[in-house]
Design goal:
The chain has helices at residues 2-18, 73-82, 95-101, 133-142, 163-185, 194-204, and strands at 27-32, 35-38, 54-57, 88-92, 124-125, 148-151, 155-160. The protein is an alpha+beta fold. It has one domain: L-fuculose-1-phosphate Aldolase.
């Protein structure tokens, strides 16, 4: 468990270092036994210690700690329950993904790298108050057949089978978001066909990352 907690702290700090999320925003979790380990609520990542990382069971019960789990723990819980291939989750308030999300827009297949999220677009989950079960429901809908999505007026979320890959996917989503915003400044981008994206998705299955 300690090794997983150290890994969570390492990548939580990378949220700040890479600019994916500032100060206390965003959160990270890793599946562990019949639950998951998650960053605490309201603690600056630069000061995180092993004792600060909290275990939350899939039943929603969490261990006693001076800190509480991230206020977003419910959507982590629901993703782990509903996505058996999810072993790590990264949620970030990254600038460009958030900028698109406040327009309640997803990202179409303007670039083949959109396929890294698992489909021919990156959807935007409908808005709901943070930390609520309604938000979890909306995120799960947007993640149907996907490993990443935007969250309206909020940010982005990505999951993978390990934490380094989940973090990299979140970085990819942010980079794709920046490219999409930039392309819109030049006009309406040309969208790849569904046929082409099917080909890309087939090739992406063999694209090894992390």
């Amino acid at each position: 468990m300690k090794q997983l907690k150290r890994e969570i702290i390492k990548f939580a700090k990378k949220l700040n270092i890479t600019g994916l999320s500032a100060l206390r925003s965003g959160n990270i979790s890793v599946r562990y036994k019949k639950g998951f380990l998650i960053t605490p609520s309201g603690v600056k990542y630069s000061s995180l210690e092993i004792k600060d990382i909290i275990f939350v069971g899939l039943d929603g019960k969490f261990s006693k700690n001076k800190n509480k789990p991230s206020s977003e723990w419910r959507f982590h819980q629901d993703i782990y329950i509903n996505k058996k291939d999810a072993n790590a989750i990264v949620h970030a308030h990254s600038t460009n993904a958030t900028a698109i999300s406040v327009h309640k827009k997803g990202i179409p297949a303007f670039h083949y790298m959109v396929a890294l999220a698992g489909g021919n677009d990156i959807r935007c989950a409908k808005y709901a108050t943070f930390g609520t079960r309604n938000l979890s429901k909306n995120i799960l809908q947007a993640l149907s057949g996907r490993k990443a999505c935007l969250i309206a007026n909020h940010g982005q979320i990505a999951f993978e089978d390990n934490l380094p890959k989940a973090f990299e996917l979140a970085e990819e989503v942010e980079n794709i978001s920046l490219q999409y915003i930039t392309s819109l400044k030049l006009g309406k981008p040309k969208i790849l066909s569904i046929k082409e994206m099917r080909t890309v998705l087939s090739k992406a299955k063999n694209y090894k990352r992390g």
